[in-house]
Amino acid sequence: MNNKKDSNDILVKFSDVTKKYGDLVVLDKLNLEIKKNEMVSIIGPSGSGKTTVLRVLMTLERINQGIIYLDGEPLTHMPEKEKLVFADEKYLRKRRSKIGMVFQQFNLFPHMTALQNCIEAPIEVLGMKKEEAEERALDLMDLVGLSDKKDEHPSRLSGGQQQRVAIARALAMRPKVMLLDEITSALDPEVVGEVLNVIRSLNKKYDLTMIMVTHQMGFAREISDRVCFFNEGKIFEQGPPQQLFDNPQNERTKQFLHAVL
Ligand code: ADP
């Protein structure tokens, strides 16, 4: 039985998070809570801060104000002399391994085979034994339908296949949350479906918490528990997909959906 909707635990929490580039406020006192096992899509106009949400959660970018929690613990901050201060790079690196991210440009290691791409971080970062990492990576290759390509280098794989390796590689770290940043945007239209199918089956079979930035409105509607409409670094409107797509309340949401649907 699928019990994924039963959890009320908050896994990710953005509390009044502000991110600026120079004077440009990209995230504006953002509050966002993601429950365990929830599938959340982030949609909105270009430049509204969607990718930045994922990048600050992945700790690739530092926030200027506020705090982000992962599983009840501060992610962006560390304790120092009984106070919480912004975490240093060493601390962030440790926490980062709990989060899996798949990028628009697959970012695979070009000199490694598909399988090697999936065992590198579990061995180097988690200290997993090679045999165990390989066994798990083989299962993941199977899961993304690429068992027969495990010994190929990325340059010999199609875009869709490379992206499926990237998904397997992120899962190999057993992340608490998976972040998907426009993962089909760089793909030829005919292979978009194979990547979406992998996400669809992961969502059905496993209790994964996923946050997905996407332009694929049909897919967001089908797969999400909740859709957040971003504008100017804030959530203008959010709700279950049917509600947000069929009966948006906010004028800006209506305009955006009118333009893209
Ligand atoms: P979205 O994903 O919604 O298109 P982004 O989160 O990528 O938006 O970017 C939000 C804003 O931040 C944009 O105006 C973008 O130009 C700016 N921005 C993003 N990254 C940087 C950066 N490294 N330096 C300066 N400005 C940036």
UniProtKB/TrEMBL annotation:
InterPro entries: AAA+_ATPase, ABC_ATPase_HisP-typ, ABC_transporter-like_ATP-bd, ABC_transporter-like_CS, Ectoine_EhuA, MetN_ABC_transporter-like, P-loop_NTPase
Keywords: Amino-acid transport, ATP-binding, Cell membrane, Membrane, Nucleotide-binding, Transport
Membrane topology: Peripheral membrane protein
Family membership noted in the UniProt record: Belongs to the ABC transporter superfamily.
Domain ABC transporter: 12-257
Major place of residence: membrane
Subcellular location: Cell membrane
Keyword Lipid biosynthesis: no
GO molecular function, one term: ATP binding
This protein's name: Amino acid ABC transporter ATP-binding protein (PAAT family)
Alphabetized Pfam families for the sequence: ABC_tran (PF00005)
Origin organism lineage: Bacteria, Pseudomonadati, Pseudomonadota, Alphaproteobacteria, Candidatus Pelagibacterales
Keyword Membrane among UniProt keywords: yes
